Amino acid sequence: MTVDNPRDQFPIGMRVLAVDDDPLCLRLLEALLRRCQYHVTTSSEAVAALNMLRENRNNFDLVISEVQMPDMDGFKLLELVRLEMNLPVIMLSGNGDPKLVMKGITEGACDYLLKPVRIEELKNIWKHVIRGKKNEFDDDEPSTQKKPRVIWSLELHQKFVTAVNHLGIDKAVPKKILHLMNVDNLTRENVASHLQKYRLYLKRISWHAKQHPNNMEAALGSSDSSYLTRTKTHITLFIKYIP
């Protein structure tokens, strides 16, 4: 008799560590993840979650963490997990402030989900695990020359945004953005990855704005009218990318 290995049925049984200090939110998140047929472990403390990962790093495929927690914020957990284990981390928050969303994405989060989380979003998180495994395989190839990791500083990101605004979000492609940025050692792959994250960022803002059609300022977390004008333009241009 042959017993199927649960790992052969991936993403069924994908091992997710969910971290949130709010017990109600954590229970709801766990229930949604289980409905997606993932194997879920929960923790109400970021430090405890980090220790769990350090002791059993091969027992998890992905981490979902709340941003604001009392013992350690989600960004610090993201930093340590990426540094020590290179697991994909999804940030989770009820705060749709674009600055927080962009911080999570630029610091390496593979996604940034806004509460309340929808099961449709969770059904596709397994793709981040596949993408991470592919990158690990590429790095292990002897013919692959490893390049220094690009740190997207505020200055570098501003050059990126300036290039995207110049081209228009609907016409911005990595090759053209790279040409306009004119930054040494920056590759088309670097720009393509950042563009994907930036579009995700705009999508999050657009979704949040749709939920607050009469309160655009609150949805964007800013009272600067010029900032609102620029962001509204981004939302209008990017609306076609929303499924």
UniProtKB/TrEMBL annotation:
<dbReference type="InterPro" id="IPR045279">
    <property type="entry name" value="ARR-like"/>
</dbReference>
<keyword id="KW-0597">Phosphoprotein</keyword>
<dbReference type="Pfam" id="PF00072">
    <property type="entry name" value="Response_reg"/>
</dbReference>
<keyword id="KW-0932">Cytokinin signaling pathway</keyword>
<keyword id="KW-0902">Two-component regulatory system</keyword>
<keyword id="KW-0539">Nucleus</keyword>
<dbReference type="InterPro" id="IPR006447">
    <property type="entry name" value="Myb_dom_plants"/>
</dbReference>
<keyword id="KW-0804">Transcription</keyword>
<keyword id="KW-0805">Transcription regulation</keyword>
<dbReference type="GO" id="GO:0003700">
    <property type="term" value="F:DNA-binding transcription factor activity"/>
</dbReference>
<dbReference type="GO" id="GO:0009736">
    <property type="term" value="P:cytokinin-activated signaling pathway"/>
</dbReference>
<dbReference type="InterPro" id="IPR009057">
    <property type="entry name" value="Homeodomain-like_sf"/>
</dbReference>
<dbReference type="InterPro" id="IPR001005">
    <property type="entry name" value="SANT/Myb"/>
</dbReference>
<dbReference type="InterPro" id="IPR017930">
    <property type="entry name" value="Myb_dom"/>
</dbReference>
<comment type="similarity">
    <text>Belongs to the ARR family. Type-B subfamily.</text>
</comment>
<keyword id="KW-0010">Activator</keyword>
<keyword id="KW-0238">DNA-binding</keyword>
<dbReference type="GO" id="GO:0000160">
    <property type="term" value="P:phosphorelay signal transduction system"/>
</dbReference>
<dbReference type="Pfam" id="PF00249">
    <property type="entry name" value="Myb_DNA-binding"/>
</dbReference>
<protein>
    <recommendedName>
        <fullName>Two-component response regulator</fullName>
    </recommendedName>
</protein>
<dbReference type="InterPro" id="IPR011006">
    <property type="entry name" value="CheY-like_superfamily"/>
</dbReference>
<dbReference type="GO" id="GO:0005634">
    <property type="term" value="C:nucleus"/>
</dbReference>
<dbReference type="InterPro" id="IPR017053">
    <property type="entry name" value="Response_reg_B-typ_pln"/>
</dbReference>
<dbReference type="InterPro" id="IPR001789">
    <property type="entry name" value="Sig_transdc_resp-reg_receiver"/>
</dbReference>
<feature type="domain" description="Response regulatory">
    <location>
        <begin position="15"/>
        <end position="130"/>
    </location>
</feature>
<feature type="domain" description="HTH myb-type">
    <location>
        <begin position="144"/>
        <end position="203"/>
    </location>
</feature>
<dbReference type="GO" id="GO:0003677">
    <property type="term" value="F:DNA binding"/>
</dbReference>
